Amino acid sequence: MMAPLFSSKLLIVLLFGTLFGLILGVLPGLGPTTGGALILPFTMTLDPLSAIVLLTSIYCAGTYGGAITAVLINTPGTPAAAATCLDGYPLAQKGEAGRALGMATVSSTVGGIFSVIVLVFFAPVLAKLAYEFGQPEYFALAIFGLTMLASIGEGSPIKNLIAGAFGILISTIGKDFMTSIDRFTYGINELSVGIGFIPVVVGLFAISEMLTQSTLLDQVFKRVALKAVKLPSLDDYKKTWKTILRSSGIGSFIGVLPAEGGTVASLIGYSEAKRFSKEPEEFGKGSIEGIAGAEAANNAATGGAMVPTLALGIPGSATTAVILTGLIIHGVRPGPDLFREQPDFLYGIFGAMLIANILFFIFGFFGAKLFARITLVPNKILWPMIFAVSVCGTYSLSQSIIDVWIMLFFGVLGFFMRRFGFSVVPVIIGLILGELVEGTLRQSLVIFDGNWLMFLTRPIALTFFILSFIALAFPLLRSKKQKN
Amino acid sequence: MNNVQNKKRANKSLPFFFKDEFKVFFVIIFFSTILLISTFTFDKVPPILNRGIQPATFPKGLLVLIMFLTTIIYYLSFKNPWKKEKKLPKPFFLTILSFILFVLISKTLDFFLAISVLSIFVSYNWGEKRVFYLLLVGIIFPLVVFIFFEMILGLRFPPGIITNLYYY
Fold first, then answer.
1. Domain residue spans in chain B?
2. Is pLDDT of B11 > 70?
3. Which chain B residues in 35-94 lie under 8 Å from chain A, judged by CB atoms?
4. How many domains does chain A have?
5. Among A310, A349, A302, CA closest to A2
């Protein structure tokens, strides 16, 4: 499994990716999704394995990095670390920042490694199952992935569905891939090739965040001093080992579900830790179990989210949508054939994720204090720099200035979407799945001679449709229950 | 909790066309309608080439779905009004202005110059008054990024008054 990684070049890529991921995770507003999108153009100079190793190591380390700022300044570096704030910061205020970060580091590492094991065993099984899939099954699966958007953590279910449909709509811009007929191009030549993924991602994440930061300039962070990260004591381990294992399982499972990711995993991991705890009253006041529950779950979602990404080509989260784009750009087609034809490539990725989890443990343990200092870089210096990288990175892929303007447009749009409670993640997932949804629908209708009801005669497709119905009904039932 | 209720009440007292719910509903429905109308101008393929459905059918379906879901959220907002958002501060509008400047300068003068102007403009308006840091974000850092992309990635930036000095 590790053999392809024993080259100095790949190890350097892995080290760089982990360090870069940690820095991105620490900086509020950035994160592995934005960072992955920003670095994607740079990966063009790398071979496919190095490129994906770089992106996955950023994903693993970035997800953990969010915990550092969550504990020290009560601001999650990434949305997935939001639940960590609930107990991490109160514990840090009690003068135990080192203990809080130690538990976050250990539980993140255990969760991450657990999920890589799930990935190694579960992804090939899912890929084998996918051999049974025809066009109707893939269509039903993609619909299931999209309906799962209704239950992602941020935003209301209906707003998430609107955003997802909007993402698919963007994917229809350009020449129709089956008939070459122009759609929504309005005579603009540059639009006939469609709208690229990178301008949209960088716009929706980096530029919209820059605009958000422009509204928060008077915000002052209350920083808690950190002497050193401490390994958890034996008592802490005794108290949390069950929570860590439970959250690792929850995180991996949630990660496997299409479109779900670390944010949902950490919230469920946290609430389950509270439900099973002997001291639930301590939650929110600095419970070590709360930190373990949230952190193990969000890092466990990384490996889980890679399962549908690699086995089916359906992104498990926003960051894996970026990784999926990286795979496609480098000519690697995810899906069952990848497991049969390029096992070395896949085991290289699995090994890289495993090592990245160990590396961020080391870096986090010895360097958390240093990484925390990165947040001292003022926004008035940091964001213009991020803008320069965003612009050059977006321009570089197609060498088109139109792409840069598209990026700015989506930046402004993303800002207003977030302002009015629409999550931008569904747009990305919709954009990625758009071609699959439309292509498989149209090909299925050719197979079925235009008879839509024939979808219901395919057992796997029918199962996915039932799951889609449940995914849509679940948030409604949940909100009704909460009201009652 | 009280604050949220107050904000909700404040939003409730406004005429309907000033409320965020209506503005969002109107913007989505307006643009969706325009796009929906434009789908009727898409070329049609003859039945022999038609793979299942016409190229316009799928986008039409999506737009109708978006309009339907938007109507639902607007309807639901009568029961649960959205909380009123804070007014946007001056730096936000200056940042938007810097984007417009960026587009104008990159189109007419120079891509690199546009990045420099935006960086200095944003940094200054966000509160940075020290000349060294303004030069750092406006000239030194963009130059490093420019050279990195040019040399490592072999990228050729669009011609302009400053970029041409480098290339020729």
1. 2-79, 90-167
2. no
3. 35, 38-39, 42-43, 45, 49-53, 55-56, 58-59, 62-63, 65-66, 69-70, 72-73, 76, 82, 85-86, 88-89, 91-92, 94
4. 1
5. A349
